[in-house]
Amino acid sequence: xxxxxxxxxxxxxxxxxxxxxxxxxxxVIVSRALPDVRDGLxxxxxxxxxxxxxxxxxxxxxxxxxxxxxxxxxxxYHPHGEKAIYDAMVRLAxxxxxxxxxxxxxxxxxxIDGDSAAATRYTEARISRIGIELMRDIEKETVxxxxxxxxTLKQPKVLPSKFPNLLVNGSSxxxxxxxxxxxxxxxxxxxxxxxxxxxxxxxxxDEISEIVKGPDFPTGAYILGNSGxxxxxxxxxxxxxxxxxxxxxxxxxxxSRIVVNELPYQVxxxxxIEKIAELVRDKKLEGISEVRDESDKNGIRIAIELKRDxxxxxxxxxxxxxxxxxxxxxxxxxxxxxxxxxxxxxKQMLTYYIAHQKExxxxxxxxxxxxxxxxxHILEGLLIALDNIDAVIALVRSSKTDVIAKAGLMAxxxxxxxxxxxxxxxxxxxxxxxxRDKIIEEHNELIKTIAYLKSILDNESILLGIIKKExxxxxxxxxxxxxxxxxxxxxxxxxxxxxxIQDVVIVRTHQGYIKRTPLNTYKSQKRGGKxxxxxxxxxxxxxxxxxxxxxxxxxxxFSNLGKVYELKAHEIPEAGRQAKGTAIINLLQISPGxxxxxxxxxxxxxxxxxxxxxxxxxxxxxxxxxxxDNIRKNGITGILLRDGDILINALxxxxxxxxxxxxxxxKSIRFHESDARSMGRGTxxxxxxxxxxxxxxxxxxxVRENSFVVSITENGFGKRTALEEYRLQGRSGSGIIxxxxxxxxxxxxALKLVEETDDLVMIAANGITIRIKTGEIPVIxxxxxxxxxxxxNALGQVASVAKVPGEDLYEAPIKTFEEEDND
Length: 823
Hints:
About 30% of the residues lie in helices and about 25% in strands. The strands form 12 sheets. A 4-stranded mixed beta sheet has the order 14-9-8-17. It is elongated.
């Protein structure tokens, strides 16, 4: 086709595509997808905040319809569609999306389940209290403005941003050929890092990362390890692993539930529950009986109920691996610097923000200085007029027009045009003496203000001091603490370094519940007392074992089936004095029907040590402790048991000790452990005590010279007997009488070797405990029934007895059982 005056230009398709695509890419990068390093906002967010500020929708004003806000932004600054603007606005108002929401929304602004916000006509919004800090002083020419899309209005190129929004709220976006994914952070930590950098500009990144611990997500949850965090802060790129915050709650019938309280950032709760249900339905995940969403206005709560005897730790590990209960956040700290995209490390981001605040404060100071100088200039003219008021009035009255009057004032009194105009507009009331005093006072104050403003411009240290003060004010006003707890990785730090060394009591119940309680929970009482409420047990359960240890000690768990498991004391959850504790099945991978029979603490020792094991049928075995160094999570064999036999106790020895054992019918035997040679773990052992067929072993103790033997019956009778009365015999004998048993005393339930400084904690079957000093127990011969140590009548029979050191520091102000009843 030919046209008049046509002009055809030959263009290379490759060159044209390259040029057009580069133009498009730069438009997306600069004007859409990436945040500015100074205020942390993309253009759409900046335009929303500016439009709301222009409309006066500030925190102290009423909410306005979202439709009104979106329409204003659309018509004035951002012609890209209502949905794009509203979606951006909604995200700024969502507490689960934005660490410190910049918009205060009223109405349905969506949910963590992925629900969309209500239509714009139904919701209302205003700038939040921290959001207004982004706009503060914008009217004082602190930032540059540019024309809007049609050239009819001006919009800010960047906001003053009185807090470091880019790091505090983070940002994410996909541009062309690049993307940004900056995590949110704790406001207090970022402010502290800025102040440190202001005071010491040469601070290294590693020092800054000691202040900024890591990201701080709106949804909380855990962050695993800090190697990825340090890498991101050092290079601008890294990855962090986020893990849901979970608790294990015991249920009736040997069941338990996993409760999810916090989710990783940007995880859809509804989809997560659907995924878990799908895994259960497809038989990929066994052990879950029900999943319920119990979330409410108080927070997230996903209850995952487990089947009987299912180990929560195993289910949790599967969920972390195959669902979004554990997610990875890839950090890319990309932002616009002078309209150019750059990957920045943490120090660079903070430095650019400080530079921005220096410029904002400098421009604000210049604005205030100009305003103050203009005002003092007028006041100086007014003072000249007041000093010559009669002449001024005569000149004005004799002038035919105000132009003539103005010229006359300027010529006669040496005034400027601005001063002359102010004099002509002065009201008659300003001629009073009081008004004159006010003008003089204002003039003097302005002189001081101008001097201060000039000092800011002349002295950078003063300027930086103001920035620090304003940042501290923001921190105190809007800081709300860290939400995401950073959990160190095992490979990065020894967990025990984080655990305080503390004496604790490990309490275990017959039905398999365990807890860790500080030893000072208990206090000494007089013999025959009623005790204090020790542990609230489940129906038909009773406390079976009380052990004093340290939080750093290694614990070996010996089961009735002869297997051995291992935990550190601090790995047992701490609970209050009356708490039920945690089911052992949640901590150890024990088999159905298996029960932990005894627990012993192990300390690192230079000399050779042995474990001496005793069984219900009277068999014993000695094994070198080194054979228990590498215990698998599912346990190892401690002793091979004969049919119908079970393990009752294990003792730590040095190979040269004596053993004292007792049966429930009151027989005892004392022999040297050398009578039992050392054997491997996978053996059955040898005969330790010969007993009647219906009798059984109830105690096995290490002999300590100069100690006493305390024997206690199930009805609370007990006595203290000199050790010498228990003569040394050979292994496998039938023994001698340890205690005279009657119907009144009941069978023997415990035999302990003690010193006068020791205390005994006696525990009844219903959980009531009493602590008594062994020195208060009468010394009586072997063949005697003893005295009442614990009134068992309404409390149930004695179920367990534990020995603890008697020291004053362990005493604590706790209530008696009677006082508990009165409450």
